[in-house]
Amino acid sequence: MLMATDDFFRSRLDQMIDLRHPLAVLAQKMPWAMLEESLKPVFEHRDRKGRQFFTDDMFGQNLQIAGAGVSNAGRPRLPIRLMVSLLYLKHAYDVSDRELVVRWTENVQWQYFSGMEYYQTKFPCDPAQITRFRQMLGEAGVEELLKATIDAAVKMKAIRPSEFERVIVDSTVVEKAVAYPTDSRLLEIARYQLIKNAKHVGIKFKQTFAMEGKQLKRKAAGYAHAKQFRRLKRILSRYCEIQFSTVTSLA
User: Fold this and answer.
1) Which of 16, 54, 125, 166 is the most buried (most CB within 10 A)?
2) What's the confidence (pLDDT) of residue 104?
């Protein structure tokens, strides 16, 4: 293995850090070669069909094809291990793309985890490249990284396989279709349930106030939104009168 002359005067990262650090241990246990081999088809240059066109010469028309084959033009791709490591560090430490590359230049543990042999003072990549890498990786690629991380944790005995037999899902942050319990809404629900239960036991009403209840509910929502509280108070008073009339008719 050839070594640059400047490397004789620099210390290797594995001599500068504690190899018992969790990131250093994880770097040694992760199947980097397998990840690079599985993700390589996603980032390799595509074989393009090209564009067909005809040209005229002294022998007549000739069919020409432009832009076909595999193009090596453009900026060389960054190592897959480096980009995978940056993506893992971003989610593990919950930092933005910009903050990630800045902290990477200051943290030797992060650089060792990313596969660097010597300390680097420049950014590993442009912050926008992390976003593009994540988009190209797709959902299948992220699941492959998650699986590799879990397998490494099992080999390190950080977690037991039995812990994966049960999955706990926290749904506290999931949006639910729960309406705010305003007074007009509660009064309308009370009127509806009262009429429903009375009909269930065979009690008939001359008037159920169903149409008026819907109108009052709509007006109450409009007055509350417009902050017209005096009109809203009159609507709620009318709701109470309806409730009183319904109860007295039961008596």
Assistant:
1) 125
2) 93
Instruction: Judge whether 30 and 82 are in contact, CB under 8 Å.
Output: no
- pLDDT tier at 35 (50, 70, 90 boundaries)? confident
Helix intervals (H) in the chain: 22-29, 32-43, 80-93, 97-104, 108-113, 127-155, 183-200, 210-225, 229-250
Per-position b or e across 71-91, b if 16+ CB within 10 A of its CB: eeeeeeeeebbbbbbbbbbbe
Tokens standing for 229? Answer: 């509280």
| DSSP per-residue string spanning 2-20 | ---GGGGGS-BGGGTS-TT
| Residues with Cβ within 8 Å of residue 117, at least 6 apart in sequence | 12, 13
51-91 tens-digit pLDDT = 776 777 776 777 776 666 666 655 667 888 898 889 888 88
Q: What angle do CA 58, 59, 61 make, to 5 degrees?
A: 100
User: Which residues have a Cβ under 8 Å from the Cβ of 137 and sit 6 or more positions away?
Assistant: 39, 42, 87, 145
Give the residue among 19, 22, 17, 35 at the shortest CA–CA distance from 158.
22
